[in-house]
Amino acid sequence: MTPPRSAFGAPPQGGDTCGPAKPVPWCPLDRRHAEARRAMKHLIPQFDLMRRRYPAEATSSLVLPCLHAIQRDRGFVADSDIAELSEYLGVPRIQVEEVLAHYTQFRRVAIGRWHLQACRNVTCSMRGSERLVDALSRRLGIKPGETTADGRFTLSEVECLGSCGTAPVVMVNEAYHENLSTEKLDELLGRLS
Fold it and tell me: Packing angle between helix 63-74 and helix 79-89, nearest 10 degrees?
């Protein structure tokens, strides 16, 4: 019997310190989960370029930039990516898991085309961010942490977007929308729909 092989062609390395991988939740309207099951081989040349910039003994320093590349490529980091990245870098799986747990910008499941992140910190809260979240929830028919059935919008509340002087703020993907009112929010959603 032939030993199992990883996506990179090498036999899998020793035990997994985190136990068995949890399956990624499936969203029938979003094919990105199916794509996550494919090997991330197309990113290896990019990882190799990054690896050349680091000393050989600093391989673990590549975890963060490689995770950024995976998320840029797919929009989230799947469990299969963790195992493959751990194997590629030769670091324990728990080290990749720790980075994912520490940095909140990494997503573990697919999100909608438009990721709406409403700041809930003190300044935004004092300037009406709760009204904005309520308006978004009513208009989109979802609560924070959910994605619309058509896969277009994901609503999140975040601790701080660092734009207190222009509160309340909602970030849509990578763009800030500041000094928002419910009227401005309706205009914004109209442009995104």
Answer: 140
